[in-house]
Amino acid sequence: MNSPAKGQVFARYWRTFLPGWLIPVPILAAILLGDFASSATATRVLPYFVVAIFIYMIAVQLPPLGLFRRGEITYFQIFVLSTPMALVGIVCVFIGVFIHTLRS
């Protein structure tokens, strides 16, 4: 396996993982849509939005798995390059709490 040096892994593959890091953003949008939209709008739009989020979640996992199958990166490197998703998730939680606090 021709794995790049540790310092090069992030620089070389961060664009592949960027859509995965942003998964919490549409989830926050779905939560806010359910809370702030009218019930008629939320009832019509939210199920399709949730399905779109699931499709997005599956689609963004395919390119990193392709890198793994071709032997360009290891499973541990996939794990390390996916950790910013947790940071974005934490930021989205704080944003959601802040928006709900402003509404109250």
Shape: elongated
Low-confidence stretches: none
Number of strands: 0
The assigned structural class equals mainly alpha
Cα-to-Cα separation, first versus last residue = 55 Å
Overall mean pLDDT stands at 90
Task: Give the helices and strands as they follow along the chain.
Answer: HHHHH
Radius of gyration: 17 Å
Helix count equals 5
Helix proportion of residues, in percent? over 70%
User: What portion of residues belong to β-strands?
Assistant: under 5%
Largest sheet: none
In short:
By secondary structure, the chain is an all-alpha fold. 85% of the residues lie in helices and 0% in strands.
Describe this protein with a few key phrases.
104 residues, elongated, 85% helix, 5 helices, mainly alpha, 0% strand
Task: Please provide a written account of the structure.
With 104 residues, this protein is an all-alpha fold. Helix content is 85%, strand content 0%. α1 (6-21) runs antiparallel to α3 and α2 (24-36) runs parallel beside α5. The longest helix is centred in the middle third of the chain and has 31 residues, at 39-69. The protein is elongated.
Furnish the topology, listing elements before pairings.
Elements: H1 6-21, H2 24-36, H3 39-69, H4 75-82, H5 84-103
Helix pairs in contact: 1-3, 2-3, 2-5
